[in-house]
Amino acid sequence: MKKITLFLLLIVCSVSLYAHVDNIPQDEEAQVKGVNKEKKHRHLLKVNLTNLLINHYYFNYELAIFKFLSVDVGYGMIPKSPIPYIKDMVKEPRPAEDTYEMVRALYDTKLSGQVFNASIKLYLGKGWSKGFYFEPYYRLESYKVSDFHLEVDEDVNLVGFQHPEGGTEVDMSGNMESRSFGLLLGTQWFVGKKKRFLIDVWWLGLHYGEVIASVEGRPNVALTDEQLQDIQNNFNDMDIENEYVEFETEVHQDHAKIKAIAPWAGVRMGISIGYRF
Fold it and tell me: I want to staple 46 with a disulfide (CB 3.0 to 4.6 A). Which of 56, 133, 256, 274 is the partner?
């Protein structure tokens, strides 16, 4: 009888202890599970929607290191293609003749480029990689313009490119490379039943650095010594030197080139969508 009584007493104590453990810490356990679940899904892949409007494909990967801290790397590219919306510029109403010819030349021009971005993100919201954030970043940009063919009449002198017998077609091309540091302010939300999809809004980003840009022209005829001197004189008469911009010029029989090193500033805004895992 004593053994039965002791056995029943142990059962009652066990049930009481189980009820106590099961009921009281459930909220805390759920919170811990929620935190662990967020911590588990620390990898975020995104695509920027705004840049698609200008034929710019930008993707980035974010890794949550801590609840408030992430590292982010992004890569964007513009495949060689016509300048966005340039066709709309040659539609009616037609601009002035000289402007129209310049715009028409741009119609066949091709633009390409690449962007690399590395940053850290400091979050102020609750949860992992969620809410308002500050994002200091380093940005590399490289763009190229090609297939710009400009016809120069005999009465027009384009920095010395002039054919005495009627006209000259000049093949123009250009390159630009920049390196900048900046700060972006944004907000990130997780959506969906399992909160696996995300929306990332770049409210405003500003960066500042240095740019190296060059423009080169190649005429379809060989240049005489007199024409070469005319080009060099035109470069000298442009009076473009100043304390902020450094210029270099090259004049050769088959081409002329002007290069500039200058301060560079840019703005970033946009909306990205993505998925975390």
Answer: 274
Contact 147, 190 (CB under 8 A): no
What are the backbone dihedrals phi and psi of residue 237, each rounded to the nearest 5 degrees, phi first?
Answer: -80, -10
Q: Report d(CA 186, CA 206) in Å as an integer.
A: 12
How far is Cα 183 from Cα 136, in angstroms, rounded to an integer? 4
Please give the structure tokens belonging to residue 164: 């005495």
From CA 15, how far away is CA 233, in angstroms rounded? 99
What are the tokens at 229? 């001197």
| pTM score, whole prediction | 0.75
Q: For 109-149, how does the pLDDT look when each residue is reduced to its tens digit (9 = 90+)?
A: 899 999 999 999 999 988 899 999 999 999 999 999 998 87
The answer to whether 190 and 276 have CB atoms below 8 angstroms apart is yes
pLDDT band for position 24 (cuts 50, 70, 90): very low
190: three-class secondary structure by DSSP: strand
Contacts of 48 (CB under 8 A, 6+ apart): 56, 58, 59, 60, 76, 270, 271, 272
- DSSP class of 242: -
Distance CA 120, CA 98 (A): 48
End-to-end CA, the chain: 59
* CB-count exposure of residue 83 (10 Å: 0-12, 13-18, 19+): middle
Close Cβ partners of 233 (under 8 Å, ≥ 6 residues apart)? 160
| Tally of CA atoms within 13 A in the half-sphere of 174 that contains its CB | 17
Report the alpha-carbon distance of residue 125 to residue 129 in Å, rounded: 8
Q: What is the token pair recorded at 40?
A: 């588990």
Give the residue ranges of DSSP H helices in the chain. 2-23, 26-40, 86-89, 97-107, 225-237
